[in-house]
Every structure is written in structure tokens, then in C-alpha cells.
Amino acid sequence: MIRDLINSKNLERGDKLPSERIMSEKFDVKRNHIREAIRKLEFYGIIKSMSQSGTILNIGLTGFNGMVDEIISLNTPTFNELVETRISLELKTVSLAAQRRTESDLKRIKDTLNDFKAKITEGDDYLEEDLLFHLAIAKASKNNTMISLMLLITPPILATYDRKSVCEGDKLISEIKKHEDIYLAIESQDTELATDMMKHHFNKLSKHITSSDINDSKK
């Protein structure tokens, strides 16, 4: 609907879209449907909502149509794709965190580490505490784009994580040490060591998704 309107009016970068009310009346749909479509386009940076100017097109018409085609063709990412993205992202965030962390960052990371250790020691499900530890590291990277990406991929990973198969055979002491080693590398501001410790932490998970990809390709 919004795409048809933008094309029919030949809107270009910087041009203003009609209000939600006008589009709702024009397309005879509820305003919340228009609002949801606007949020999705805004998420991809295609349009931008400005408090004084309304909603404007953030890209030219040719680029707009090309990006919308790609968005429409996107499939829901698989667990393996999400994890692959997370690993690549975290190897960079941990390096930046080691370089840029402040004392308050270290306290936040240490607090989430302690929460993780408490849960895993008690035998409780520790997945959320583990991810909060990694989010604290992302925050210490001081890169808002990376933090946003971590926040974006964390919920679907939580929803699809099969801990029984991924974590089978994990030893409590070993898992705690991996997290402590990452923290200590960040604390000492050793970027190379921090990256190596994160790689070591993800070694089993990397092998798991590689193995499942191979098995899927054989089916």
C-alpha cells in the first residue's frame, strides 16, 4: 500500500509521506496497520519519522523499490544463521569492549557474570543470564549499531535455542572459566586475548551449527 502510494506520487528522498490518518482513510485499513508498516520501513532506514516534519522518504525511489523487493523476499532467519551472525558480531564487540571499557562497564559485566555463575551453579536454566553477560560486553563496545544488532537477534535465539543438544556434555567449571577468562581479558584491555577467549567460548557452538548444516545438506 505505502509502496504503491510512494510510486504513484513519484516521491524522492526528503519528500514527505501523507499522515497515518490520511493513508488509513485512503487504503481503508486501520491506522495500527499503517503504523506497523511504517515502523518496519523505518527499521530498515527506508523512511524516517521526524517530530516536526512528519514521515519522510529517506532514500530515492529506485533505491526504495530495490530495498522493498529485498525485504519482501527475506525469509525468517534460521537458528544457525542467527548464531552465525551472533558469533561474528561478538568477536568484534569483545575486542572493542576490551579497548573501550570503563569501570562502570566492568562492574556491569561482572554483575552479569556473577548472576550467570549463580544460576549455573544452582543447576537452574542460565541461558538468559548468559545472554545478558554478552549484552553487557556489547554495551562496553560503545558501538550503538552493534548493540542494536545484539538486541535484535537475542530474542529469536532465546526462542529457538535447544539447550539439550547445544549444551550436551558441558561441564560447570569449564563453562564458568570460559566466561571468567573473557571478563579478565576485557579487564586487562587485551583485545587479542579477549577475541581468542570469545572464540574458545563459541568453539562448541560453532562446531554444532557446522555439523547441523552438513547434516541438512545431506538430506
Could you walk me through the main structural features you see in this protein, from its secondary elements to its overall organization?
The chain has 219 residues and is mainly alpha-helical. It is 74% helix and 4% strand. It has eleven helices and two strands; from the N terminus they run αααββαααααααα. The chain has helices spanning 2-8, 20-27, 31-43, 61-73, 79-100, 103-122, 127-140, 144-160, 163-166, 172-187, 191-218, and strands at 47-50, 54-57. Strands 1-2 form a two-stranded antiparallel sheet. Strand 1 and strand 2 (54-57) form a beta hairpin. Helix 6 runs antiparallel to helix 7 (127-140). The chain starts with a helix and ends with a helix. The relative contact order is 0.10.
Keywords:
219 residues
Structure in a nutshell:
α6 packs antiparallel against α7. The chain is built from 11 helices and 2 strands. Helices cover 74% and strands 4% of the residues.
Which overall shape is indicated by the principal axes computed on the Cα atoms? Answer: elongated
Biggest sheet character: 2 strands, antiparallel
N to C succession of SSEs? HHHEEHHHHHHHH
Return residue spans where pLDDT drops below 50 for at least 5 consecutive residues. none
How do the helices and strands line up, and which of them pair or pack?
Layout: H1 2-8, H2 20-27, H3 31-43, E1 47-50, E2 54-57, H4 61-73, H5 79-100, H6 103-122, H7 127-140, H8 144-160, H9 163-166, H10 172-187, H11 191-218
Antiparallel strand pairs: 1-2
Helix pairs in contact: 2-3, 5-7, 5-8, 5-10, 5-11, 6-7, 6-10, 7-8, 10-11
